[in-house]
Design goal:
By secondary structure, this protein is α/β, with parallel strands linked by helices. It has a single domain (3-43, 50-197), classed as Rossmann fold. It has 9 helices and 7 strands, in the order H-E-H-E-E-E-H-E-H-H-E-H-E-H-H-H. A 5-stranded mixed beta sheet has the order 3-5-4-6-7. The protein has a two-stranded parallel ribbon with strand order 1-2. Helix 2 (21-33) links the parallel strand 1 and strand 2 (38-40). Helix 3 (85-98) crosses helix 8 and helix 8 runs antiparallel to helix 9. The longest helix has 14 residues, at 85-98. The radius of gyration is 16 Å and the shape is globular.
Amino acid sequence: MEQLAGLRAIPGLIVIRPADPNETAEAWAFAVSHNGPTLLAMTRQNVPHLDRGQAIQPGVVNGGYILRDAEGGAPDVILIGTGSEVGLCVKAQEKLKSYGVKTRVVSLPSWELFAGQDAAYRESVLPAAIRKRVAVEAGATFGWQKWAGDEGVIIGIDRFGASAPGAELMQHFGFTVEHVTSAALGLLGRKQEAERELGGETP
């Protein structure tokens, strides 16, 4: 789980963790045209094709983009994911909608490319005024504070030792729709609803 954090610390290396086949194709196209080293961190899980019909300026070349925006105005909370966890964020957005929570989903396949965009673009994706954020990645949380912010929650893995089938591990470490939904509700001060999502267990 520490590999992504270590790779992202290498100067000059562009790390891309694509979320679906579309992002993978774009990541490969970038890699073969980029004048410098690029690493593609692929997932072993089956991932769905993400519907980008509502996406704003989609593309791996931007490093991050709005995959699905909130309906009815500015978002109450932003869900940020990479790789297979982006699909999880999309499902959590649907569940949060039933709670009346306006949610933006951001796919952030490459920190380096996103950081290289101009300030106006970064602000359009992750507005400074929207401080309620949930970052989701099946890896070390180190470095995510930059994107989650000081009021955000980071769902990641910061310890070794668990051994079980993949689906059981994802459940154990909180990579579930319920956990992401609960984290978002908790940020908004809706503690009872957050606890209900986890069957009485706070995130």
